[in-house]
Specification:
- This protein is an alpha/beta fold and 367 residues long.
- The protein has 2 domains: 145 residues, Up-down Bundle (Four Helix Bundle (Hemerythrin (Met), subunit A)), CATH 1.20.120; 175 residues, Rossmann fold, CATH 3.40.50.10470.
- It is 35% helix and 22% strand.
- The chain has a 7-stranded mixed sheet, with helices on both faces.
- Helix 5 packs across helix 6.
- The longest helix has 30 residues.
- The chain is globular, with a radius of gyration of 20 Å.
- The protein starts with a strand and ends in a 13-residue tail after the last strand.
- Bound molecules: 5-S-methyl-1-O-phosphono-5-thio-D-ribulose.
- 5-S-methyl-1-O-phosphono-5-thio-D-ribulose binds next to helix 2 and strand 11.
C-alpha cells in the first residue's frame, strides 16, 4: 500500500527479504500509527522473536515472515552435509512455528517452502529454492488479497456502513489485506461508504492499525469502542460486517479470529446483518476437525490491565504503558475466539465467496 509521510508517498510491503544481508525487513507495527519505521532481523531467531513480540502480526504477514525466516535460517547454514542441513532446517521450522500458535498461515507457508526445497539435490540448491519459495508465498499472498477484493467488491454498495474488527488490512498481510481488499476495491470504483473500526482491545489493532491504514487510503471511517457495535446495529447503523481470520477450518467452516469476533457475529445474527470473513488460501486448515481444538493464544495479563500510548513530556514524545486496572487485580487474556459456521454469511476467498460449510466440498478449487 502507499504510505504518505511528510507529503512523500511510497509503496511498501509489510514484509520483504534482503538477500544480500540475509535479513527479513519488517514494518515495526508496535510503533504505528505514531511512527513509521522499518527494522531488519539478522537471523531466524530474531525473526521468530519479532513474530512473538508482535513487531509483525496478522495471519498473512506472519505467514510470509515465517517463510522468509525459514529461508533465512536455511541460507545461514554452512557446509554441504545434507543430513545436518535437514536437522538444522527442522529446528528453524520449530522455532518459527512456536512463535505464535493460533494462526495457521506460518505453518502452511513453511510447509510450502519445505515441499519446494525437497526437490533440491544438495544444500546449495535447497537454500536457493527456499528463498524462491518464500518469495512465491509473499507474491501469492498479494495476489490472493487482490482476488479477494475482486469477489468482495460486489457486496459493497453506495451508502453502506461496514463494521470491521481488529486489523485484517495490508499490515496483516504482505499488501492490500483480506477484510480491507473489498473496501479498497470498492473505493477504487467510486462507491461511497463508511467503515466503523472496532477499537479491538486489549491491543487496539483496530484503533491504531486499521484506522491508520484507512486514513492513509482516504477511506471514510470512525473508530468505535468494542462495546458500541451492538447499539449501532440495533439503531440500523451497520449494514455489513467483514473480518479476517487466523485459522479457518476447511472441514467445518469454524473461524478463529481476534477475540471479540464471535461476539460481533452473534450480534450480527441477532440483527439480520450479513457477516463475512475474508481469507487467502493459506488461512485454511484442512486437517483440524473441530473448532474446539483450535489453539487459542493466552497473552500477557498486562495487555488487559493497562494500555500503551504516546506521552508528551515537555517537548519529547515517547511510548509509555499506563496501568488502568485496579492494582491488586489480575486478568485473563485469550487472544482469539472461534465463530461457528452458522453465524457466518459467507467466506470471501481468492476463488469466490462460499458458505462456510461449502469449503470442504470445494477443497480442490481452494487448494
Ligand atoms: O494478534 P494479531 O494482531 O496477530 O491478530 C491477528 C489479527 O489481526 C486478526 O485476528 C485478523 O482479523 C486476522 S489476521 C488477517
Amino acid at each position: 500500500m502507499n504510505v504518505t509521510i511528510d507529503k512523500q508517498t511510497r509503496h511498501y510491503r509489510t514484509v520483504t527479504f534482503d538477500a544480500a544481508t540475509n535479513s527479513v525487513r519488517l514494518i515495526e507495527q508496535r510503533l504505528l500509527p505514531h511512527e513509521f519505521k522499518i527494522i531488519s532481523t539478522a537471523n531466524y531467531r530474531e525473526t521468530a522473536q519479532a513474530i512473538k513480540d508482535m513487531v509483525v502480526r496478522g495471519a498473512g504477514a506472519i505467514g510470509a515472515t515465517a517463510a522468509y525466516g525459514l529461508a533465512q535460517g536455511a541460507r545461514a547454514f554452512r557446509g554441504g552435509n545434507l543430513v545436518r542441513f535437514k536437522s538444522h532446517v527442522e529446528a528453524v521450522f520449530l522455532t518459527l512455528k512456536s512463535a505464535r500458535p493460533t494462526a495457521v498461515d506460518p505453518v502452511n507457508a513453511m510447509n510450502g517452502v519445505l515441499r519446494i526445497m525437497a526437490s533440491g539435490e544438495n544444500v546449495e540448491e535447497q537454500q536457493a529454492l527456499a528463498l524462491a519459495a518464500s518469495e512465491d508465498f509473499a507474491n501469492n499472498d498479494v495476489r490472493h488479497c487482490a482476488e479477494i477484493g475482486q469477489h468482495g467488491v460486489k457486496l459493497i454498495h453506495d451508502g453502506m456502513r461496514i463494521l470491521t474488527h481488529c486489523n485484517a488490512g495490508w499490515l496483516a498481510f504482505v499488501d492490500i489485506g483480506s477484510a480491507t481488499a473489498p473496501i479498497y476495491a470498492a473505493q477504487k470504483v467510486g462507491v461511497q461508504f463508511h467503515v466503523f473500526c472496532d477499537e479491538t482491545r486489549p491491543r487496539s489493532q483496530g484503533a491504531t492499525l486499521t484506522a491508520w491504514e484507512l486514513a492513509q487510503q482516504g477511506v471514510s471511517h470512525q473508530i468505535i469502542a468494542d462495546n458500541a457495535a451492538g447499539h449501532l446495529m440495533q439503531r440500523g447503523e451497520i449494514d455489513m460486517v467483514i473480518v479476517g481470520s487466523d485459522r479457518t477450518l476447511g472441514r467445518t467452516g469454524d473461524v478463529a479470529n481476534k477475540i471479540g469476533t464471535y461476539t460481533k457475529a452473534v450480534l450480527a445474527k441477532r440483527h439480520g446483518i450479513p457477516f463475512y470473513v475474508a481469507i487467502p488460501l493459506s488461512t485454511i486448515d484442512w486437517e483440524m476437525e473441530s473448532g474446539a481444538k483450535i489453539p487459542i493464544e493466552e497473552r500477557d495479563q498486562n495487555e488487559v490491565l493497562g494500555a500503551w500510548g504516546m506521552v508528551k513530556t515537555r517537548s519529547v514524545t515517547h511510548f509509555a504503558y499506563s496501568r488502568v486496572a485496579n492494582p491488586t487485580s489480575g486478568a485473563r487474556n485469550p487472544g482469539f475466539d472461534v465463530t461457528p459456521p452458522d453465524l457466518i454469511t459467507g467466506i470471501i476467498t481468492p476463488a469466490g465467496i462460499f458458505k462456510p460449510k461449502e469449503l470442504w466440498k470445494n477443497r480442490k478449487t481452494l487448494g
